Amino acid sequence: MTRYILIKILRSLFTLWIVVTAVFFVLRASGDPLYSIFSLGTPEATLDVFRVKWGIDKSMWQQYLIYVGDIFRGDFGTSFFDGREAWDIVMERLPKTLLLGGTTFSVSVVAGVMLGAIAALKRGTFWDRGIMTAAVASFSMPSYFLALLLILLFSLQLRWLPTAGASTWQHLILPATTLGLTLAGSIARFTRSAMLEVLRQPYMRTARAKGAPYWRQIAWHALPNAAIPTITVIGFQLGWLIGGSVVIETVFAWPGAGRLFIVAVGVRDFAVVQLFILMVASTVILANLLVDILYGVLDPRISVTGSKS
Amino acid sequence: MSKAAPISNGAPELAVEQYLLEVRGLSVVFDTPDGSYQVVDNVDLKVRAGRTLGLVGESGSGKSVTCLAALGLLAESGRVTSGEVWFNGQDLLKIDGAKLSKLRGCEIAMVFQDPMVSLNPVRTIGWQISESLCLHQNLSGGAERRRAIELLDLVGIPEPQIRFNEYPHQFSGGMSQRAMIAMAIACQPKLLIADEPTTALDVTIQAQILELLSDLKKELNMALILITHDLGVIAEVADDVAVMYAGRVVEEAPVVELFDAPLHHYTLGLLNSLPRVDRRVEHLNAIEGTAPPPHEFVEGCRFAERCEQSHDACYGVRPKFLQLASTRRVACTQPVSYDE
To answer: What residue ranges in B144-222 does DSSP mark as E strands?
Structure first.
């Protein structure tokens, strides 16, 4: 078990290193941050002072070694833009993103699994076709477009919900719905096919032959089996919680880390962009790790350690 | 035309006996994209309390479907078009779903062909046996567990306390089938239907499972329907036999009489195709041809095409049953004479 976890951690670190390195060099290849922060015509002498201060006067390789070394000390650098620690800036915004992502995720997992299961159980009926059409529509529509449609309908026409901001719980509804529809749609589709596969297994007939009532067959026999393949897609989506919020936070002016990221990219605020990407990569990796562990919990045939008990 | 004389050695006490399960005129149709096929055609079966009925026939002859239909366990595409299934004074095809659910697993239990896939892979063996108890009996959690372990012990699973907490994938095929049997007999059913219980198992294990079923049958005083394509199994376990061919019952007889003097040419063919150790045979007499698939089912005798004795009367009209004794009948216009 420890060996397995050790290998997992080493692999994850390797992945993170690749991400960090790629982002580091791509960012620096994109241009000089000083030109996007200072107004045109600022004397080069002034800029050079800042270059020295921020350490971007050194060669690319020197910068890289310093950057990686700092990460190991828990120092993620300083924002060029307002001079604060990048870590503090991102952490300040992260709770809002987690609130949005967490709400979206829990609601869409529950809704997606339920709708997918209903579609499978009512296979070929109006319900099945209705749910699946809606699911395909929701995840094939670009989220910003869906966001605009929802704003048009619920904010401008019906005037039920605010268009932007984050001061009340009503503000949460539209961005969460936009993100959630996409998520729930794909979860529903996966749950449906997993359920259909499970429902025609002989052990479902055994459950019926035992005299188990219908709801019990579904809840205790079918769903735990259908959960195994479904958990993959859910885990995959969990990794996108932070990353996926970038567009939606911008559309709804949600003051989360995603919006911070867009601004930081615009001004080439190296430290903030790097930290944000590092976080997105970490969530994806953590989500995958979680899926692996959940597999072992849900499916007794898979043992996480790789050894047969 | 040599007509088979009635058999007079039928036990008289059987004639007045009530049937535990009686299937009357059961027909089942399967709807497929290519059309609907009647896979079970007007089948009658009778099972007496405490006896074993062997239901024998080739795969596709409708043995399993008949039993599944009787218990309301048909797949979605199958439906019963006519017939009655009487059990304990009620017609199982008429009573509502909840009542039938209460009956299933309690008074009538079923064991399936492939134990490895018939057990839920994500639940422990103990959980699955306890569930049967929980569904039909009011036991406390502790008593349920004790009873489940007792059952595992009863079906011959060693170290039942440890096995209780294991998952199906940790069980061998034979052990899985034992666990399935434990689950089925949990509530001491009056009737156990075993659908090819040994087909998926090794030959050595087959004998053990059959022995277990026979022992349990005696111990719990239950009736058994044993579905199989293996006449050897029938000879070993069954009291009565019903032979099915292409969706119909073609012959019914007590087991000894069936083996001594088969009346239907199909039964005779089956017996002749068995390898014998007591006789010297140059080659096995397999029946020519193959059993027709459902879309080639005809109204007349469905075996006629393969039958050496077939004549005009065999075609066009469904052969009537020739009742020779209360427990013996055959659907053939010209049965095998058992003086032969």
So the answer is: 191-195
C-alpha closest to that of A271 among A31, A17, A20, A14? A20
List the one residue out of A189, A181, A184 whose CA is nearest residue A128.
Answer: A189
Residue carrying structure tokens 């009863």: B154
Out of B102, B104, B120, name the one closest to residue A203 (CB): B120
Contact assignment for B117 to A224 by CB distance below 8 Å: no
Selected for mutation to probe chain B from A199, A203, A294 (highest B CB count within 10 Å) is: A203
Q: Is the CB of residue B33 less than 8 Å away from at least one CB of chain A?
A: no
CB A96 within 8 A of CB A166: yes
Contact B169/A at CB under 8 A: yes
What confidence tier does B327 reach under pLDDT thresholds 50, 70, 90?
Answer: confident
Nearest chain B residue to A203 by CA distance is B118
Q: What CA–CA distance (Å, rounded) separates B312 from B173?
A: 48
Q: How many CB atoms lie within 10 A of CB B232?
A: 13
CA distances for A37 relative to A23, A60, A81, A92, A231, angstroms: 20, 20, 7, 22, 44
| pLDDT the model gives residue A248 | 85
Which H helix or E strand runs over B93? none
End-to-end CA distance of chain A: 12
Chain A residues inside the 8 Å CB shell of B170: 309
Q: Tokens representing B85?
A: 């299934």
Closest listed residue to residue B213, CA positions, set B181, B187, B240: B181
Strand ranges inside B16-67, DSSP E: 19-32, 35-48, 52-56
Q: End-to-end CA distance of chain B, in Å?
A: 14
Per-residue pLDDT reduced to its tens digit, A198-210:
999 999 999 999 9
Tell if the CB–CB gap between A208 and B114 is shorter than 8 Å. no
Q: Please tell me the pTM assigned to this model.
A: 0.80
Give the gap in angstroms from C-alpha B71 to the nearest C-alpha of chain A.
8
A11 CB-near residues (< 8 Å, 6+ apart): none
Pick B122's closest partner by Cβ from A209, A213, A224.
A224
Closest CB to B135 among A201, A210, A301? A210
Convert the pLDDT of each residue in B295-323 to its tens digit: 889 899 999 888 888 888 888 889 989 88
| Alpha carbon distance B266, B271 (integer Å) | 9
CB-based contact A300 B121, cutoff 8 Å: yes
